[in-house]
Amino acid sequence: MEDGKDEALLQRHKQERKQLTATTTGMKKQATKKTRKNVLKRCDEMMEEMERRHKQELSQLDAGSGQISTEPPSLDPQELLQEIESEGVSEPASEPEPQVVSAQNGGSKPSKRNRQKERLARRNAKIEEVKRAAQLEAADSVDYRKIEQDSMDELITRQGLRVEEVRPDGHCLFASIQDQLAQRHGINVDVQELRQMAAAYMKSHPDDFVPFLFDEETNELRDLEDYTKELTETPMWGSDMEILALANHFDCPIAVIMAGSAPLVMNEAGAAPKLFLAFYKHSYGLGEHYNSLRDVVSGDI
């Protein structure tokens, strides 16, 4: 190899390895649970393909052929992930037919092979294979949403209750308690008032709540004043702390029905009628969600 060409080729190979490493790292980070296996397989294939190409280019340079590709394949992580997850990937392209062109001597000869189309066909074939594997994996995967929904339907029916759907957002816990208070206590309050009531009870009983304000990101306890400020001024999701605070504020038990465990009851000693909530972990797109549970009456059946 000539020193100048040798150095340029090695530098390009080094840059391509660096770029491919960054690409595969990005793909792995963005992979979902369902696609992770296929993404890892695709990353290994791209690495092996690059190493084979590098060896071929070095051999070509040693042989003095001068025919060395200078354009590595596309390494955009988003594009590659979309190709893996795509439901509309085209079928593998067929082997290009040689085209007949007129020669100077009046005869004919096949045109040059279209290597770009051949590479595209091979890549599409691999994508189809990955897609089929992903579909088989998805078919065998556990449907946690259905399992939870079936379990919750049985638990709720057994209690003689029915679900009153609440909008799935940061206010869902308070909206569910709002509905329960209207149904069982004849009390009409809005969501913001419930947030204020929960915050006020927490601040007046700090010893009951401060131990639960541990922040896993900072490994420190959050300041109660900061927490209640966020509770009242933003649509932050409610939790067991807010349920406990409101159960004590209204002097009533609040039962939370959830799949896979016995109902969680806050303030069991409360004197006022019990409120019933349903807690879902897998059934809603935004994640954890609360619904109100009303009594079943004859008109509901």
TrEMBL record:
Gene3D superfamilies documented for this protein: 3.90.70.80
Disordered: region residues: 1-126
Comp. bias (Basic residues): 30-40
One Gene Ontology MF term: cysteine-type deubiquitinase activity
SUPFAM superfamilies linked: Cysteine proteinases (SSF54001)
Record field: compositional bias (Basic and acidic residues): 1-10, 41-57, 117-126
Protein name, as recorded: Piso0_005521 protein
GO annotation, biological process: protein deubiquitination
Domain OTU positions: 161-296
Pfam entry (one): OTU
Highest taxon above the source species: Eukaryota
InterPro entries: OTU2-like_OTU, OTU_dom, Papain-like_cys_pep_sf, Peptidase_C85-like
